[in-house]
């Protein structure tokens, strides 16, 4: 069986299990379950701490895993990203009190507090900056107030909590992270089981990003309509019973669907419908 690691808790856990369910895999019913066997798909799911998943996959004990890009890089484990999953996005940045530093070039001799020591140490080394890194588990904002560090490095969403602590974001983002699928370095993805797993997740990603659009339009406006809805290869076009009219079906990006419907209506198209796509293979 294909052995897959899944986050057992945290912000990645729920969305990862939801995506796997959409992809047709059995998932646990209770949070206490640590292993779920899906015999129909020949897969075993192991629910592990998100920070440990890269280590298990790198050891070869598990074939692939779902974790965060930040957690993979921070672990330093011998595993690599093979597919981005478009959820769990975060931005990792430096912050400090106003006037302390403008960016990493000013960090020489300073101490940086973070929960992601591996990422920060590598970022500083890559830029040739001589600064100390101290590891803290959570609430790193208080490190500056208590004099443990002059700089912090942490996940930043809106920046509100940093501003409330009297801090400001400085420099460029260290890392932009999201949920990813990983494998052991050099393991390859030639396995039919791995390929099938990746195709299923890619199908979910496409299904979430597109809708199916159907509409009727006059034949003389067809080329203009098709320019608005080119589909992935080309749209399906069928003649209607009423002479001079055709029915068109095409996949369109979900984020653009309302604008496209407006443009089609202005062109004279009618009976414009959109429907969700639950699964697909491209």
From TrEMBL:
It catalyses: 1-(5-phospho-beta-D-ribosyl)-ATP + diphosphate = 5-phospho-alpha-D-ribose 1-diphosphate + ATP. One of its GO terms (cellular component) is cytoplasm. Gene3D superfamilies: 3.30.70.120, Periplasmic binding protein-like II (3.40.190.10). It is found in: Cytoplasm. One of its GO terms (biological process) is L-histidine biosynthetic process. It is an enzyme of class 2 (transferase). Pfam families: HisG, HisG_C. Its main location: cytoplasm. The keyword Glycoprotein does not apply. Feedback inhibited by histidine. Residues 207-278 form the Histidine biosynthesis HisG C-terminal domain. SUPFAM superfamilies: GlnB-like, Periplasmic binding protein-like II. Belongs to the ATP phosphoribosyltransferase family. Long subfamily. This is ATP phosphoribosyltransferase. It comes from Streptomyces termitum.
């Amino acid at each position: 069986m294909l052995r897959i690691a899944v986050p057992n808790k945290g912000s990645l856990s729920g969305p990862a299990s939801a995506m796997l369910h959409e992809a047709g895999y059995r998932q646990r019913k209770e949070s206490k379950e640590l292993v779920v066997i899906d015999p129909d798909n020949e897969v075993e799911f192991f629910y592990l701490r998100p920070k440990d998943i890269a280590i298990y996959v790198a050891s070869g004990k598990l074939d692939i895993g779902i974790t965060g890009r930040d957690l993979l890089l921070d672990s330093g484990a011998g595993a690599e990203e093979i597919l981005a999953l478009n959820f769990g996005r975060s931005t990792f940045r430096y912050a400090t009190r106003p006037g302390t530093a403008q960016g990493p070039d000013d960090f020489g001799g300073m101490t940086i507090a973070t929960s992601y020591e591996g990422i920060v140490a590598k970022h500083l080394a890559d830029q040739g900056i001589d600064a100390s890194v101290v590891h803290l588990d959570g609430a790193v904002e208080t490190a500056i107030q208590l004099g443990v560090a002059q700089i912090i490095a942490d996940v930043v969403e809106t920046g509100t909590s940093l501003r409330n602590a009297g801090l400001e974001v400085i420099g460029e983002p260290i890392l932009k992270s999201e949920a990813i699928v990983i494998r052991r370095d050099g393991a390859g993805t030639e396995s039919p089981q791995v390929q099938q797993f990746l195709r299923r997740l890619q199908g979910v990603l496409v299904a979430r990003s597109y809708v199916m659009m159907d509409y009727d339009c006059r034949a003389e406006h067809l080329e203009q309509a098709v320019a608005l809805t080119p589909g992935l290869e080309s749209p399906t076009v069928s003649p209607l019973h009423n002479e001079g009219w055709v029915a068109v079906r095409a996949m369109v990006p979900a984020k653009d669907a309302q604008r496209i419907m407006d443009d089609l209506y202005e062109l004279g198209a009618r009976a414009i419908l959109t429907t969700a796509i639950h699964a697909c293979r491209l």
